Amino acid sequence: MSTVKSIKLVLPEDEVYLAGSSIVGQLVLKLRSTLVDPVVKVELVGRGYLEWNEEDNPHLDYSRSTVCRNQAVYISKAQNFHVDDGWLDSGVHTFDFHFSFPLGLPTTFTSKIGLISYFIQGTCSGREIVLAKEKRYLLLQGTFGNHGEDVKDMDPLVVEARKDAVYLCCFSRGSVILRIYLQKNIFSPGEIIVFMTDISNRTCKYIRKVVFAVHCIVLYRGFNSRGEQCSLEDRSEVTRLESRTNTAPFQVMRVTSMLVLPKPLPVTSMLMRNEIMSFRYELVGTSNFPCTSSTMVGRVPIIVAIPENSSGEQSTENPCENEGDNSEGNALDDRDISEKDTETIEIKSSE
């Protein structure tokens, strides 16, 4: 029977730590009998790892894949506790510990390709044998880094997407214009993104639904077995909202919507540093073209950032539990819309 009855890490529940902040806790050790020459320590570790398979040579007639991997250690600290007289009596013993997270740490992240994780581990050993240990994973929110001063509030932003089609069944032409308005494009994790969308339906069919989502685009960088550098870009949805518009033929509807960013959330990578993962974000509006298999997509680049001078830990309370949709179906014409927001920076794209 082991001398150690139990070992427990006492930490704040569901805490999201900010890079540059501190973590304070206790290691509680309960012994059945006296333990001689014990080694009691607590470690703080942060690591990143990624792995994916890719085709070795797509020009070959047969399939041959290679594995790309990469890893990084972001933080590794240990605190060893001094034991008076070289022994611990039976009973409960409490050890206080304190660690500081350095600035510039990346945010906790998990995907099918890679992960960034942080954990606290407490161990109790005797005569080079680990008698008991406990590990607790942490949530860490990264900050914007030394380049945070380069990000400034931008003017209102507009992105317009247009899709044209020909209906052979009735020998008519039509188009749909999706115009997304943002008052700003810099947001913090947990913040609510409020935006307006004008849906201009120039077809003879109804537009029933528009789907809005925030996409996270991750660029992974690794090395294959031959030491050659390889990269992979992957896209995933961070948050999503479906808006029932029912825009009538030859009508324009304005919809006001909200999306809530989760916490923690990796910040946008602004500098091309030698990182194993870099992140960027887009607000994407998607609508199926009426009576066709085509899809119209409008993309607005946004920045997720937390200034490095932010003090204290972030609160984990979510200002809005679910994504809302404040739809205001106002019938407008194209002339009324174009006369508004004259000072808006407009980026037009067509598919």
Task: Provide the fold topology.
Blueprint: E1 4-10, E2 16-18, E3 22-31, E4 35-36, E5 38-55, E6 65-81, E7 87-88, E8 91-100, E9 109-110, E10 114-126, E11 129-141, E12 157-167, E13 172-182, E14 186-187, E15 192-202, E16 207-223, E17 229-247, E18 251-260, E19 277-288, E20 295-304, E21 330-332, H1 334-338, E22 345-350
Parallel strand pairs: 2-11, 12-22, 14-20
Antiparallel strand pairs: 1-3, 3-8, 4-7, 5-6, 5-10, 9-10, 10-11, 12-13, 13-15, 15-18, 16-17, 16-19, 18-21, 19-20
Feature tags:
mainly beta, Immunoglobulin-like, six-stranded mixed β-sheet, 1% helix
Notes on the protein architecture:
The chain is mostly beta strands. The protein folds into 2 domains: 4-142, Sandwich (Immunoglobulin-like); 147-350, Immunoglobulin-like (Sandwich). It has 1 helix and 22 strands. The strands form 5 sheets. Strands 2, 5, 6, 9, 10 and 11 form a 6-stranded mixed beta sheet that branches. It is elongated, with a radius of gyration of 27 Å. Residues 145-149 and 311-351 have low confidence and may be disordered.
